Recover the amino acids of this structure.
């Protein structure tokens, strides 16, 4: 994965197995990524969001059995640019909101 022009670029996606770019906005929907990619996508997305000046981001991982939620929150817990994170109150455990350092 690499960063090009303010976008996260993935080498492989679950949907089409082709490279694609994801715009850096205040939220990212992780449903289209393969579970093995989630950790690196979260890390690169947080880095890119911080460079773009965002201080709060929403990571949409879905509810399910909580596997992706666990991967996302573990990556956020170890990320040096993350001040804090918690479940988004309006998503019923389907998204996590993270506050980034200034």
């Amino acid at each position: 994965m690499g960063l090009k022009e303010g976008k996260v670029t993935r080498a492989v996606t679950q949907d089409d197995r082709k490279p694609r770019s994801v715009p850096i906005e205040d939220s990212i929907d992780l449903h289209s990524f393969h579970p093995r990619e989630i950790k690196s996508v979260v890390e690169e997305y947080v880095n890119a969001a911080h460079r773009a000046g965002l201080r709060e981001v929403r990571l949409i991982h879905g509810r399910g059995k909580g596997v992706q939620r666990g991967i996302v929150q573990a990556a956020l817990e170890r990320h040096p640019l993350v001040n804090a994170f918690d479940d988004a109150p309006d998503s019923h455990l389907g998204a996590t909101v993270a506050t980034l350092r200034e």
Observations:
- The longest strand covers residues 82-87.
- The helical segments are 38-51, 67-78.
